[in-house]
Design goal:
Elements (H helix, E strand, L loop, with lengths): L7 E7 L5 H10 L7 E8 L2 E8 L2 H4 L2 H6 L4 E7 L14 E5 L2 E11 L2 H10 L9 H16 L2 H11 L2 E9 L2 E6 L8 E5 L2 E5 L2 H6 L3 E5 L4 E6 L2 E7 L8 E2 L1 H6 L5 E2 L2 E2 H15 L6 E4 L5 H11 L7 E3 L12 H11 E3 L8 E6 L6 H12 L4 E6 L27 H8 L3 E4 L2 H8 L6 E2 L1 H4 L1 E2 L7 E2 L9
Parallel strand pairs: 14-23, 17-20, 20-21, 21-22, 24-25
Antiparallel strand pairs: 1-4, 1-10, 2-3, 2-4, 5-6, 6-7, 7-8, 8-12, 9-10, 9-11, 12-13, 15-16, 18-19
Helix pairs in contact: 4-5, 5-6, 9-10, 9-14, 11-12
The protein binds guanosine-5'-monophosphate and magnesium ion.
Magnesium ion (MG) binds next to loops.
Length: 468
């Protein structure tokens, strides 16, 4: 299996200023997109500097390390492994040779036709060091570059053969190339910062670098950032369609980001309003599962008139229960992560809001916790329709058997998690809350119908993988 990543990327090009402090701030703003490892690469006078490490951005990058990352252009990455080994080797950026020049690449997403592209590269005599799709992507570009001698064209040509969801930053010399898959599955936004320009997975990173978002990178668009300017942009031939991942608004992005023109906070609030209409509950309190379901719970409270209460408190220092390898440890971690406010829930009927249910482990623990704290009735409302099918484009939902909703009705899920009722937002409810059309979104994990061909799954586009 390739190393799959749901990650965060950032790239900057400045004039007369070092890129590293900007990249550092941008990566810290994207920390929620990956806590496994982080890395930065910069260039000054065509010399590449790079550092990466395991852990959180601020733990890895001391002032001394940042000072060693010289030069006005650079890229950065935070990694969240969804498959593949969790070690430094898989950390990004990855350094590769493009002809005789050092290049660095970092990427968020997944390549679906990984095996095919790998075999093609190997047939052309390319040695792949690891099995990360990021490296494969860089080598595909390098190979095309050998044919065209034009890097931007090489990227476009490579993208035409790489099927999947990806947002990539690529540093060669003093140029930063930033590009997004032809359907814009993974997010990428362009903006200005002091003395230059930048791209990032989320707008919040641009703002935390002291800049602001200007626009989203378009599906299939390649940007060239050079000397503090957006020097050039071009597009790979595409259908003009998009398939933005709905999960960015549901859970993944920060609520203070704007993703593909839709403010995440507002979307989540509307989800809550909508749920109050679609699935009302007779309750005394609306309680969010923190942190990710707060705006949804506020919306539900506004829509229903039921008071909102922060009855579950999340420890600031526990993270990542979701990706712990075994079920037992995930369950224990929920106990450490959340704790009820004494007295608040006693004798209360509560409606518990969560952003999404994947395996159901977390909610089962939380429902039990609420009952333990005296709640007499627990109705669960979920801000994402049932997740029934795997994600092949960078979100950690791999296996139908793990997905609690893949073969269960709402009532059956309620039994599994021990709730009095469970209602999910409908697909039209979610789509309207996001504010884009259904055919502009990737809803693959909800419908089992994907925007591009995935072997053995249904898809909405005409082209088959064999054509690439
Ligand atoms: P589960 O139902 O698998 O126990 O947990 C689902 C909860 O984990 C969701 O409510 C959401 O808040 C969170 N979650 C969903 N997907 C991801 C993911 O890819 N990574 C992390 N860290 N959390 C996730
Ligand atoms: Mg949650």
């Amino acid at each position: 299996m390739p190393a799959r990543d749901a990650c965060g990327v950032v790239g900057v090009s400045l004039q007369g200023k070092g890129a590293a402090p900007f990249l550092f701030r941008g990566l810290r703003a994207l920390q929620h997109r990956g806590q496994e490892s982080a890395g930065i690469a910069t260039t000054s006078h065509n010399v590449m500097h790079h550092q990466k490490g395991m852990g959180l951005v601020h733990e890895i990058f001391s002032q001394e390390l940042l000072d060693s990352l010289r030069g006005p252009s650079g890229i950065g990455h935070v990694r969240y492994p969804t498959t593949g080994a969790t070690d430094l080797e898989n950390a990004q950026p990855i350094i590769v040779k493009i002809r005789d020049e050092d290049a660095a690449i970092a990427h968020n997403g997944d390549i679906v036709n990984f095996e095919r592209v790998r075999r093609r590269l190997q047939a052309q005599g390319v040695d792949l060091l690891g099995n990360a799709d990021t490296e494969m992507m860089a080598q595909t570009i390098a190979l095309e570059y050998g044919h065209t001698r034009d890097l931007e064209a090489a990227i476009r040509r490579a993208c035409a053969s790489l099927i999947g969801g990806y947002a990539v930053v690529f540093l060669v010399g003093n140029r930063v190339f930033a590009f997004r898959d032809p359907l814009g599955i993974r997010p990428l936004v362009f903006g200005t910062v002091e003395s230059g320009v930048a791209v990032a997975s989320e707008s919040v990173a641009l703002e935390m670098m002291g800049g602001k978002a200007v626009r989203d990178v378009e599906p299939g668009e390649v940007l060239v950032l050079e000397r503090g300017q957006l020097a050039h942009t071009s597009k790979i031939p595409n259908t003009g369609e998009s398939a933005h991942c709905m999960f960015e608004w549901v859970y993944f992005s920060r609520p203070d980001s704007v993703v593909d023109r839709q403010p995440v906070y507002d979307v989540r609030y509307r989800i809550g309003l909508r749920l109050a209409k679609e699935a009302p509950a007779e309750s005394d309190l609306v309680v969010p599962v923190p942190d990710s379901a707060r705006p949804q719970a506020l919306g539900f409270s506004a829509g229903s008139g039921i008071p909102y209460a922060e009855a579950l408190i999340k420890s600031r220092f526990v993270e990542r229960t979701f990706i712990l390898p075994d079920q037992r440890r995930r369950e224990q971690e929920v106990q450490v992560k959340l704790h009820p406010v004494p007295g608040l829930l006693k004798g209360k009927r509560i409606v518990l809001l969560d952003d999404s249910i994947v395996r159901g482990t977390t909610l089962r623990e939380i429902v039990q916790m609420a009952r333990g704290a005296g709640a007499v009735r627990v109705d669960v409302r979920v801000g994402c329709p049932p997740i029934r099918a795997p994600c092949y484009f960078g979100i950690d939902m791999k296996d139908r058997r793990q997905l609690v909703a893949s073969s269960r009705s709402e009532d059956e899920v309620a039994k599994v998690i021990g709730a009095d009722s469970v209602h999910y937002i409908s697909i039209p409810g979610l789509v309207e809350s996001i504010g884009l059309r259904a055919d502009e979104l990737c809803l693959g994990c909800l419908t089992g119908r994907y925007p591009v061909e995935v072997p053995e799954e249904r898809h909405r586009y005409q082209k088959s993988l064999a054509e690439f």
